[in-house]
């Protein structure tokens, strides 16, 4: 459950646009849905962060209107080899993490 | 205090109502809670049209997975930088869909995501620039199967 997936190249030229695609398996239950007469309990990822060498590259505050298995894609550039950290945070503070390195020539 | 509030409301009124939405979106009345959600995120700054593209299907078969791409025309260097993008769905139970924060390491001010739409409606995208200016784009989406409660 809740497996993070990252798609991005392993290497790039300095300053070149690099698309980073992220997806995490997650129901994004809004707490509004009924199943067999019961309300399905709310379970939401509310925050996504992508950090490049610890510095914020991109973040998202997610509310009810985000689809299940949240997908986010953005385009970064790197001047040097960089360690990326991706964090998805649930409302109760639980986190899912992924890391990736990109080499730059 | 009340004077400030009224000014703000007028500014938002201009932001939402008087600056016409393009095409079919033009006739859409924007509910008060949507206006409030936008005010909370964007503030009183008057949004200009142009310099921002909201790409979304005209008809979404499944409202639970609607692909959205927002592109802001910005070099992402120096003062010409987009710092945040906010998405609002005018007829969802929760109008605010998501807010994206764009760091200095991004090559383009472009975000793709998948969102839920409860029914056919107007989707609004707001972009905040480093100089404090705000840009806006609107798009009407028809939805075959609502995506919020299923």
Automatic annotation (TrEMBL), chain A:
InterPro entries according to UniProt: Ig-like_fold, Ig_E-set, SoxZ_dom
Organism (species): Phreatobacter oligotrophus
Gene3D superfamilies in the cross-refs: Immunoglobulins
Source species taxonomy: Bacteria, Pseudomonadati, Pseudomonadota, Alphaproteobacteria, Hyphomicrobiales
Alphabetized SUPFAM superfamilies for the sequence: E set domains (SSF81296)
One Pfam match: SoxZ
Segments forming domain Sulphur oxidation protein SoxZ: 6-99
Protein name per the record: Sulfur compound chelating protein SoxZ
